[in-house]
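Risk mitigation, structural track. In case the binding assays with iron/sulfur cluster fail to produce interpretable data, a predicted complex structure has been prepared as a fallback.
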Amino acid sequence: MDIQKMVEEIIKRLKKEYPEPRTALNFSNPFELLVATILSAQTTDTHVNKVTENLFKKYKSVKDYTNVSIETLQKDISSINFYKTKAKNIHDSAKMIVEKFNSKVPKTMDELTSLPGVARKTANIILFNAYGMNEGVAVDTHVRRMAYRLGLTKNEDPVKIEKDLMAITPKEEWGNLSHLLILYGRKICQAKKPQHSRCILFDICPSRNI
Ligand code: SF4
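Fallback model:
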């Protein structure tokens, strides 16, 4: 099977499992999604959702995050890994959005990645989940592992993996592909114990014997 056909088949099969692949992070507007995505690095979505439940009650608008000190924000999110850096990034991103983008989370890759703590992965998640835009493929640890196991890339660097995936996937599926691989990577194609015998990609996966 050629590689484009392989991606199409993977998407087709995984969409049967997950008809509407989206982030598991809770949010009700683009800035909340930005906050949740920054918090989610090296942390489970479940834990982030627990923390943001209170955080989003306390801070209603982008401006609210600029009206408190970084130390206060640090206390609010102190149960999260790397909370000091994350609090600073959220605070400084909010400030920049208020001052430079008229209090609205920008809709372009260049503008988004100019915000503190926002690289391509976070920007892709926001563009797809908050604005329905396919600008790239968000590559997290699950996408990275599954893309490699499925033979869709030979690279290990997320930026190169993203380029490989964009080259072989129809643009309208970029956001879906990322979330499908994340959902399936969490449930079946896990890092330590991939569940080959339960896998719906078994017959087409080059790593079924690992
Ligand atoms: S066959 Fe195994 S390695 Fe391949 S996608 Fe399925 S669980 Fe992952």
